[in-house]
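Request: How about a record?
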Amino acid sequence: MRVQFIDPGAFRTELSLRRAALVSDDAGGHTENWSEVATVFGFIEPVRAAAPFGAGQSHERVTHRITLRFRSGVTGGMQLARGPRNFSILTAHDPDETGRYLVCLCEEEQT
């Protein structure tokens, strides 16, 4: 496999890496409480935007590819945040298996 190289200056966007903790409510359910795990720098690339129509509503979906310096423990279900924008991590993988980069496929949460 070809070794990938990314200009180190491309990692200039500051992001907050967050993990959800489930907090029990007293009615037998739970709520998500997001806590910051680390501050990381990355490179954000828009990948696709779609607005499928169903049940009388438009459901906008925007996906991004966010590349970070490699960090173990980043998994799907975590979140990256930049200011008011939240990106749910769908997948995270090392593209060339060298332990240098981590590519996260994310979906931006619509507010």
The longest strand covers residues 30-50. The CA atoms of residues 19 and 67 lie 18 Å apart. The chain has one domain: 10-108.
